[in-house]
Automatic annotation (TrEMBL):
Record-annotated ABC transporter domain positions: 11-385
Compartment(s) of residence: Cell membrane
PROSITE patterns, per the entry: ABC_TRANSPORTER_1 (PS00211), ABC_TRANSPORTER_2 (PS50893)
InterPro entries: AAA+_ATPase (IPR003593), ABC_Ni/Peptide_Import (IPR050388), ABC_transporter-like_ATP-bd (IPR003439), ABC_transporter-like_CS (IPR017871), Oligopep_ABC_C (IPR013563), P-loop_NTPase (IPR027417)
GO cellular component, one term: plasma membrane
Protein name: ABC transporter ATP-binding protein
Topology term for the membrane: Peripheral membrane protein
Database matches in PANTHER family: ATPASE AAA-TYPE CORE DOMAIN-CONTAINING PROTEIN, OLIGOPEPTIDE TRANSPORT ATP-BINDING PROTEIN APPD
An MF annotation (GO) of this entry: ATP hydrolysis activity
Residue spans crossing the bilayer: none
Keywords: ATP-binding, Cell inner membrane, Cell membrane, Membrane, Nucleotide-binding, Translocase, Transport
GO biological process, one term: peptide transport
Taxonomic superkingdom: Archaea
Length: 457
């Protein structure tokens, strides 16, 4: 069964409308976007510059600037609408106030701190801006976990401290005979939560022989905590870290555990010598490595959704390929769902299960990657396809005209001003999304029910 067919949604975006209030006028950046995301899929988002891809990604994260008015719509994560306060204000106010909006954004940011990272996280184009130059990268990964889920670090450290080699042998047997679920249950019943992720992070590795995996798992039992860390964890366990002088101890001990977790994540992402890498500073790493560290931070809290906004655009082609391989690997080995934003369709073709095409703040077509590439239906999608640079650059076409001024988008279909097939109706009435085949929708008056395009571009 395909990931889309399961129909269980991790994210549901409905009728999202957002405008930017500026001195030069009101830009209607999102004009009614509907979108679903399913577990474990990669949804690619494409469209020319200014079509609203980044704004959509940021709005889903609840990360909008103060001049952004959420006029309507919802963003449901696990059924909970995370933008409700912004929508309630943006929709119901007759006079939009940036100051009032800012207050609501600040309040919402506090509420969403837990959601961000834990459920949803984002990777941006330029890794250097996402990393702190004065902290080792391992610290930054550790801190992301410390910030969102310090208890997890505590559980990990304590569980290791409690087990013997004999216990580990028993767990390995359970794992080999009954599988991962049974092991997780067993550890839970013995109060050893936190050990499961450590054992499984070794067990799931494909790059090492089983005998070596067993050795590594057994060695997890011999890691005794340093007394200073024991003290720090005890302080945290008893809630004494609320006293400023003691909080340092607790944080240091938890961060030390976070370093171990950082090594596991970097190993999982196929980074060589992770023990060394965690101690390096961002400027000591290559661009590709930095982006992998940013991805590690995004993955550190096991989010359900990761939004990647042009994650490979600042990288050279070979590194770009490695990052794409990484996303493909993650897709195969985890339940994480991705929204992968790129203006480059050939990049999206590699990683996506479905592709959504945006134009002037709307989705105009969305469907399985094979259909979008083999039988694009919207004239805009077809023209974008023809603009992909191929082997023979001489046939490369560009899309005539330019994206509309979003202060005053055209009436009817926004693409009608550039579409060679536009009919009168296109200029007066905005087409709605219509399902043309399973999971494939398109908004174009020229596309008949059967999904055949009337003209040929
Ligand atoms: N803070 C802002 N204030 C005013 N206008 C903005 C702001 N942020 C984005 N916009 C405008 O919103 C529109 C959509 O921008 P957005 O960055 O989402 O497009 P995009 O498809 O991601 O483009 P790109 O590929 O260039 O990143 C553009 O017209 C942009 O100028």
């Amino acid at each position: 069964m395909s990931k889309v067919q399961t129909k269980e949604k991790v994210l549901e975006v409905q009728d999202l409308k957002l405008s930017f209030y500026t001195r030069r006028g009101v830009y209607h950046a999102l004009r009614g976007v509907d979108l679903n995301l399913y577990p474990g899929e990669v949804l690619g988002l494409a469209g020319e510059s200014g079509s609203g891809k980044s704004t959509l990604g940021l709005t889903i994260m609840g990360l909008i600037p103060r001049n952004a008015r959420l006029e309507d719509g919802s963003v449901k994560l696990d059924g909970i609408d995370v933008v409700q306060p912004l929508r309630d204000y943006g929709k119901n106010t007759s006079k939009f106030s940036v100051k009032k909006n800012e207050k609501i954004i600040k309040k919402l940011n506090k509420q969403l701190q837990q959601v961000r990272g834990n459920k949803i996280s984002m990777v941006f184009q330029e890794p250097l801006t996402a990393l702190n130059p004065v902290l080792p990268v391992g610290y930054q990964i550790a801190e992301a976990v410390y910030f969102h889920d310090p208890d997890r670090l505590l559980r990990r450290a304590l569980s290791r401290d409690k087990v013997t080699q004999e216990d580990m042998r028993e767990f390995l047997n359970i794992l080999k005979t009954d599988g991962e679920e049974k092991l997780i249950q067993e550890l839970k019943s013995r109060g050893l939560e936190g050990l499961d992720e450590q054992i499984l992070s070794v067990w799931r590795r494909k790059d090492i022989h089983e005998a070596r995996k067993e050795k590594i798992v057994l060695s997890l039992a011999n890691v005794k905590l340093k007394s200073i860390d024991k003290l720090g964890l005890t302080i945290y366990m008893h809630g004494l870290h609320r006293f400023p002088i003691l909080s340092r101890f607790a944080k240091n001990s938890l961060i030390n555990e976070g370093y171990r977790l950082a090594v596991e994540i970097l190993t999982f992402l196929g980074i060589p010598h992770p023990e060394k890498v965690v101690k390096l500073y961002p400027h000591e790493l290559s661009g590709g490595m930095r982006q992998r560290v940013v991805i590690s931070i995004a993955l550190a809290n096991n989010p359900k959704i990761v939004i990647m906004d042009e994650p490979t655009s600042a990288l050279d082609v070979t590194i770009q390929a490695q990052i794409l391989d990484l996303v493909k690997d993650l897709k195969g080995n985890s339940d994480i769902s991705f929204i992968f934003i790129s203006h480059d369709l050939s990049v999206l073709a590699e990683v996506s299960d479905r592709i959504g095409i945006m134009y002037a703040g709307k989705l105009v077509e969305i469907g399985p990657v094979s259909e979008i590439f083999q039988e694009p239906l919207h004239p805009y999608t077809r023209m974008l396809m023809e603009a992909i640079p191929g082997m023979d650059k001489s046939v490369l076409k560009t899309i005539p005209g330019s994206v509309p001024d979003m202060r005053n988008p055209p009436t009817g279909c926004a693409f009608s001003t550039r579409c060679p097939f536009a009919i009168d109706r296109c200029r007066t009435e905005d087409p709605r999304m219509v399902e043309v085949s399973k999971d494939h929708q398109v908004a174009c008056w020229l596309v008949k029910g059967g999904g055949r395009h009337a003209g040929s571009v």
